[in-house]
Automatic annotation (TrEMBL):
This is Single-stranded DNA-binding protein. Residues 105-151 are annotated as: Disordered. GO terms for cellular component: nucleoid. GO terms for molecular function: single-stranded DNA binding.
Amino acid sequence: MLNRVVLLGRLTKDPELRYTQNGTAVATFTLAVDRRVTNQQGERETDFIPIVVWSKQAELCAQYLGKGRQAAVEGRIQVRNYENNEGRRVYVTEVVAENVQFLGGGEGSGDFEQRTPVFSGDGKPSRNFQNDNPFADDQRPIDISDDDLPF
């Protein structure tokens, strides 16, 4: 069995950092990812994918990532459920990130890609420069305006 996801997109807003009762950091953000094919009007549709990051990597995401920044996320799909206030079962599908690469992007990013380390799931730098980045050749901007975001 295999549950593996690799995504490349832009953050729709700054990551939200929280801590569990035992002090573990957890960051959440949404990644906007364009589909490869166009719809009947010739436009690309965009998927908005919720991402969850834990521990030290969550703190690093909250520190280095922001709205409009490009990021590559590697992880697994998780489906969880809970009962809401009305007593209805709510299902949530999200990607639990194990590796996040900060690719920069956004206005005024300068040499962000050249100086931003890549962090693995344990929060330790795994690679340090863009020339080690497998996503470096796919730096296409995602054409999306704030009006298109669902929140």
